Amino acid sequence: MLFLLSGGEKKTKKAQTQPTEHSDKVKEIFLSGRFPVVTTDTVEGRAIAKVLGLVCCRGFDSDEAFFGMAARAMKKGAQAIIGYHENIAFHPDGSKYFSCYGTAVMFAFEGSEKPLFPLSMQ
Question: 23-31 and 62-75 helices cross at what angle (nearest 10)?
Fold first, then answer.
């Protein structure tokens, strides 16, 4: 009970996690427009051939959460994320906690069309 009345010490942020080995490549692919992340359930002009499932990532940094989610989708072989959502939790100590999630999908290809997904995440 004394802890509640005295205020106690504020929580400190968890130690920053090390970026994944592919984080720079994932960021480059997304920023170049080769890996779409959309809030809608389709990507304009593209037919979805396969749904790979839900991907999500959380962290104290928005880039860590977003690009972590994209990296997980790419590891599954995804070429896009549809239905993207994000949540931010605000804690009393002033920190923020980001959650990003969406559905990883693969596109259908016609004829000799080559896949947009250039990164092997193996």
Answer: 90
